[in-house]
């Protein structure tokens, strides 16, 4: 068989963009997007994406070239969904921007990416204009396209032509519906550029290939067992790692995308009932939000909800499932384009008590079917840790959807992607005897007190078990004697609980050295737009509090 080799017929570059073509044929007359009172079909969505891609490449005023960066600053509205296809269909690299970033950060990201064009939602108009005003003199500024919204009237619409090249709908209308979209020459060609979500103070530009996105999309559909034509509610921001690959995934199975702007519990419950939603994703903070309202009623139909981003406390999982949500738990990073580990559920676990089921489900789990390998190693020696659920190490990954690298950062890329073939995540975890991974912390979030390593996640999990606690985050506070001690930042469901009460609660449930020595009450903890608590801000607050001078006991 030595003469057999890859040929053009069997070597077409893999890309998730192909899913849209197929779905337009199979499910063309089915609902693709629902937004307020508007409904689009898959034929319409397919045609609109082709028209927009055509305008990007053929407009003499734009002339976006393959490989150039096109940015989007928008919430989960229909245009945001369409752009996940239309921009890479033009050969450009898609860059979704976080709508909750400040103008300075957005200006930095646009300059770093050398973005040529920015699609801007009408409610982010002031934000983008302020960001561009911060560009250094002489710097090339990207053109702006306005995403208008008839349900969000703009009082200054007459002034928009001063700053915006065009509107989104104008570009769609001018495009060719028969446009032959630009397929990647190689499946390794860059498709998207995502900046890390901001739990640290220095976002990095993560570049993913068409191949990587194809692999993670299919693996996510298989792992979550997504059926044909689900009704998917977009509670997860699409700008967060391209919505964990599900814009392309829901297209692949001909589902319906329910889009909306504001993520709050009443809106989510209303849309679930109105559209009989079957699937949604969200960070653990979304689960917490959905289970803390007044007078909550069981769902009219079961809803599969996939959570990731931080280990969900067992108490939150219990409350969520009691309402009729079926919780799936996974793990991934911006650098993996979606979830690559999930807590694959075993039928015999259904017989366990609720608290034990919640404990098992709070683990991250095993690699997805499309991923190659997940392990926990000693970061210094590279030795695999024992699978005893106790010995900690750094979580390492390898697989087809790991990023190409960090944009303009070869040192950062080489540091986390080693010659041995591992991507070092910076997460601290353990491997259980059954082969299931459990994240214990980010390496920078481990608290070292008197020589003992304390997992902030474990302490937070205990705090969430207190009935008065709404949110909790634990960081290190300097200590004259111990070096560091745990400091808990807590928001309450209602006032009345004291620092002493929470400390005593923790003392009854964990070793004394792990108990927070300080509890700080806040109305709300600082978060990224995807619900991750920004611990670096809390660490700074704890540092500014100075060294604690409490008892050595």
Structure description:
The protein is of the alpha/beta class and 553 residues long. Among the domains are: 13-215, ANL, N-terminal domain (Rossmann fold, 3-Layer(aba) Sandwich), CATH 3.40.50.12780; 446-544, GMP Synthetase, Chain A, domain 3, CATH 3.30.300.30. The chain contains 17 helices and 26 strands. The strands form six sheets. A nine-stranded mixed sheet has the order 2-1-11-10-12-13-14-15-16, with helices on both faces. Strands 4-3-5-6-7 form a five-stranded parallel sheet. Helix 2 (42-58) crosses helix 3, helix 11 (284-290) packs across helix 12 (314-322) and helix 12 crosses helix 13. The longest helix has 17 residues, at 42-58. It is globular, with a radius of gyration of 24 Å. It starts with 17 loop residues before the first helix and ends in a 9-residue tail after the last helix.
Fold blueprint:
Elements: H1 18-26, E1 31-35, E2 38-41, H2 42-58, E3 69-73, H3 78-89, E4 93-96, H4 103-113, E5 117-121, H5 125-133, E6 143-147, E7 166-167, H6 168-174, E8 190-195, E9 205-209, H7 210-223, E10 231-233, H8 241-244, H9 246-252, E11 256-259, H10 265-275, E12 279-282, H11 284-290, E13 303-307, H12 314-322, E14 325-333, E15 338-342, H13 354-361, E16 366-367, E17 373-377, E18 393-398, E19 405-406, H14 410-416, E20 423-431, E21 437-442, E22 447-449, E23 452-454, H15 456-464, E24 469-479, E25 483-492, H16 499-507, E26 518-521, H17 535-544
Parallel strand pairs: 1-11, 3-4, 3-5, 5-6, 6-7, 10-11, 10-12, 12-13, 13-14, 25-26
Antiparallel strand pairs: 1-2, 8-9, 9-19, 14-15, 15-16, 17-18, 18-20, 20-21, 22-23, 24-25
Helix pairs in contact: 1-2, 1-9, 2-3, 2-6, 4-5, 11-12, 12-13
């Amino acid at each position: 068989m030595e003469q057999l080799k890859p040929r053009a017929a069997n070597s077409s570059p893999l890309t998730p963009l192909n899913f849209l073509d197929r779905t337009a044929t199979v499910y063309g007359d089915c609902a693709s997007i629902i937004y307020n009172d508007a409904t689009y079909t898959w034929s319409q969505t397919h045609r609109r994406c082709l028209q927009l891609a055509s305008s990007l490449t053929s407009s003499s005023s734009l002339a976006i070239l393959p490989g150039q960066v096109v940015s989007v600053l928008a919430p989960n509205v229909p245009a945001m969904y369409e752009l996940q296809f239309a921009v890479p269909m033009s050969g450009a690299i898609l860059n979704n921007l976080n709508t909750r970033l400040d103008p300075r950060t957005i200006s930095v990201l646009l300059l770093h990416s050398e973005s040529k064009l920015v699609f801007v939602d009408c409610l982010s108009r002031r934000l983008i204009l302020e960001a561009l005003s911060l560009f250094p003199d002489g710097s090339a500024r990207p053109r702006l396209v306005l995403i208008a919204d008839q349900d969000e009237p703009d009082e200054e619409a007459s002034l928009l032509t001063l700053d915006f090249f065009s509107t989104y709908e104008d570009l769609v209308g001018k495009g060719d519906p028969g446009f032959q979209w630009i397929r990647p020459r190689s499946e390794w060609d860059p498709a998207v550029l995502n900046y890390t979500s901001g739990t640290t103070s220095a976002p990095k530009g993560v570049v993913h290939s068409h191949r990587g996105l194809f692999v993670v999309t299919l693996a996510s559909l298989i792992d979550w067992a997504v059926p044909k034509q689900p009704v998917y509610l977009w509670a997860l921001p699409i700008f967060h790692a391209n919505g964990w690959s599900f814009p392309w995934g829901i297209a692949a199975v001909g589902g319906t995308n329910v889009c909306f702007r504001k993520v709050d519990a009443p809106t989510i419950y209303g849309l679930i009932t109105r559209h009989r939603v079957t699937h949604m994703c969200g960070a653990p903070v979304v689960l917490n939000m959905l289970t803390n309202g007044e007078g909550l009623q069981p769902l009219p139909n079961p809803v599969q909800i996939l959570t990731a981003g931080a280990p969900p406390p067992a108490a939150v999982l219990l409350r969520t499932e009691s309402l009729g949500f079926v919780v799936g738990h996974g793990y991934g990073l911006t650098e993996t384009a979606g979830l690559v580990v999930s807590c694959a559920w075993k039928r015999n676990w259904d017989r366990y008590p609720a608290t034990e089921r919640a404990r098992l489900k709070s683990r991250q789990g095993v690699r997805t079917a499309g991923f190659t390998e997940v392990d926990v190693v000693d970061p210094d020696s590279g030795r695999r840790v024992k699978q005893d659920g106790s010995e900690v190490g750094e979580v390492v990954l390898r697989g087809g959807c790991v990023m190409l690298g960090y944009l303009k950062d070869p040192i950062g890329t080489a540091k986390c992607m080693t010659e041995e073939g591992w991507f070092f995540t910076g997460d601290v975890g353990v491997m259980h005897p059954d082969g299931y991974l459990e994240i214990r912390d980010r390496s920078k979030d481990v608290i070292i007190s008197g020589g003992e390593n304390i997992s902030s996640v474990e302490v937070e999990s205990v705090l969430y078990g207190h009935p008065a606690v709404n949110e909790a985050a634990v960081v290190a506070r300097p200590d004259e004697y111990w070096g560091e001690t745990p400091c808990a930042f807590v928001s309450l469901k209602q006032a009345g609980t004291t620092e002493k009460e929470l400390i005593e609660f923790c003392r009854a449930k964990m070793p004394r050295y792990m108990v927070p020595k300080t509890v700080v009450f806040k109305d709300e903890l600082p978060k990224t737009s995807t619900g991750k608590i920004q611990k670096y801000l809390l660490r700074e607050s704890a540092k500014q509090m100075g060294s604690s001078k409490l008892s050595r006991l």
